[in-house]
Amino acid sequence: MTVTTDSVSAALEQTPTHERVDSHLHPEGSFDVDAHEVPTGREEIWRFTPLKRLKGLQADAEFMPSKTSCTWNTPAGARIEGVSGDEARGLRGLSGLVPNTRWAARVLAEVPDSLLIDLPADTELTEPIVVDLDGTDASVTEAGHVAMRFGAHSRAIVVLNHTGSSTVAAVVEIAVGDGADVTVVSIQDWADDAVHLSHHQARVGRDASYKHAAISFGGNVVRMDANVSYDGPGGSAELLGLYFADAGQHIEHRIFADHTAPQTKSHAVYKGALQGEKAHTVWVGNVLIRKVAEGIETYEENRNLVLTDGCQADSIPNLEIETGEIAGAGHASTTARFDDEHLFYLQSRGISEQEAQRLVVHGFFNDLIRKVGVPSIEDRLLTTVEAELAKNVLRDPGSLAAFAQEA
């Protein structure tokens, strides 16, 4: 299946010209697959990503019949179903997305179906929508498109739960209506052989609130872009991330807050921990404040905790400011080894070394887990953090203190 010239033209006409970004971090987009070259790894947006481990998803790998099951609950008032044909094609670009990568353009052009999550105006859900995606074969390269549409003054939480073995490229589009309050949580808890390449794009309406949480634990390679733009003044976006990389894992998160309207807000907080040989995390943040975006507020921060030798954490915050009439803008980034003084303080009060390690790492993540604001998954996240610690650090109670002393 291919997108027709007419449908591409219609999508471009619906996309305000100010959303087309001239930036080394965000090349100009196009629905035309041939307009995008196959990345070599020398491009700014690909220089950290291990392209050989993506199994061709970033280039021209065949999108095979899916081996990933997709199931969901349907709370009263919501429409959730797979759609195809003209309805699926009409959903491409609903978030304002014009793809700036070859793989995303291919997903929109070649994937025949979409999973639609549709909430009418003034509808408030009392329980989260949970979509479970469970892969069974990482040797199959596949792709998917998810479209979320939330009407004016609606209220909902959506959880995308990724497990099992899969090699998948996914585009997720979110349209948040005026005055709506929406939370989207994406959990990457894949098996060790999984490859996950994804782009999440949201368009936030006037006086609407949008929260996006990216939580990555499993997988061989996980790369996720989480982008947001604004349809009118008063919109607010909170971009959260939590990740834990083990030996050999590559986990990469990129965010882009494009302030396309005045009096808008964005706040990004990503926290990650690394342990084991060749564990690698990447966080690239970017906020673009356009000339029209007067009176905006934005802040982005990334904190990394390196638990053992042999890890690498890359953290790059960026601000692009085209107007001086703003309420506030800033960023912060830290990558540090464990502070042995924290351990000493706790141990001096009778807490064992192993328990002290656990408490400090949990304290590093706990405030962020609470910010996600989904009680049904908080316990799961805390349990997963502890399971990650048990793989390496807590298995050898003396290793972390020795590591901290060497620092």
Automatic annotation (TrEMBL):
* Region of interest (Disordered), ranges: 1-31
What positions belong to coiled-coil segments?
Answer: none
The biased composition feature labelled Basic and acidic residues covers: 16-31
**Signal peptide (from-to):** none
Domain of life, source organism: Bacteria
Ranges of compositional bias, category Polar residues: 1-15
UniProt domain SUF system FeS cluster assembly SufBD core: residue ranges: 140-364
Classification via InterPro entries: Fe-S_cluster_assembly_SufBD, SUF_FeS_clus_asmbl_SufBD_core, SUF_FeS_clus_asmbl_SufBD_sf, SUF_FeS_clus_asmbl_SufD
Please give the family membership noted in the entry: Belongs to the iron-sulfur cluster assembly SufBD family.
PANTHER family in the record = PROTEIN ABCI7, CHLOROPLASTIC
This chain belongs to the protein called Fe-S cluster assembly protein SufD
Species for this entry: Nocardioides hwasunensis
